[in-house]
C-alpha cells in the first residue's frame, strides 16, 4: 500500500478521532514513526494493523470506519490528485463517475505498484450509472458507499438527488447502480 493512502487514513483519523486516538493506534500498530512518504510502497500488514487499531480505539464498527475513510478520501484526497474541474451539480457528478476509471488509470502511471482499487462505470441510462468497484484492501461495501457519497458531496449533490443500490457482491467486487432522481 502506498504512503499516499496511509497518510489519507492518518489525516482522516486525526480529524475525526483526534491526536490521542491516533497515538494509541500508532502504539498498538507497532509504528515507531507515523511519517509515510506518499510515493513509497509499504507492506500491507502496516495498513492492516492501523485499521485494526483504529476500529478498536475509535469505537466504530469496521464497516462504519471504512465508510468514513471512503467518504473522507473522496472529499480530501481526490481534489489533490484530480486535475479536472469540480463543477457543482448532478451532471458534473455523473460525468465524474463515468470518467473516474480513467483517473485511476492515470494514477497507476504515477504509482507503478498501484493495486489500490479497480473501478469501472457504465452509462446504464440517462437516469442511472452502473458502477463497479473492487477495492484492494478495504474490501467492504461501506468503503465503496463512502466513496460514492463523498464524491456526491464534492460536487455538492444532495443525497436526495440520487439513490445508491448495491446490486451484486461477487467476492470482493461490488456492483452499484446510482439512480439519479
Q: Which helices and strands appear, and what pairs or packs with what?
A:
Blueprint: H1 3-17, H2 19-29, H3 44-58, H4 62-81, H5 90-110, E1 117-125, E2 128-135, H6 141-154, E3 162-170, E4 173-180
Antiparallel strand pairs: 1-2, 2-4, 3-4
Distance between the termini: 37 Å
Compressed to H and E, one letter per element, the order equals: HHHHHEEHEE
**Regions with pLDDT < 50 over 5+ consecutive residues?**
none
Helical amount among residues, as a percent range? 40-55%
The number of helical elements comes to 6
The average pLDDT is 88
Keywords, separated by commas or semicolons:
alpha+beta; single chain; 4 strands; globular; 181 residues; 6 helices; 4-stranded antiparallel sheet
Structure description:
The protein has 181 residues and is α+β, with helices and mostly antiparallel strands. The chain has helices at residues 3-17, 19-29, 44-58, 62-81, 90-110, 141-154, and strands spanning 117-125, 128-135, 162-170, 173-180. A hairpin with a 2-residue loop joins strand 1 (117-125) and strand 2. The mean pLDDT is 88.
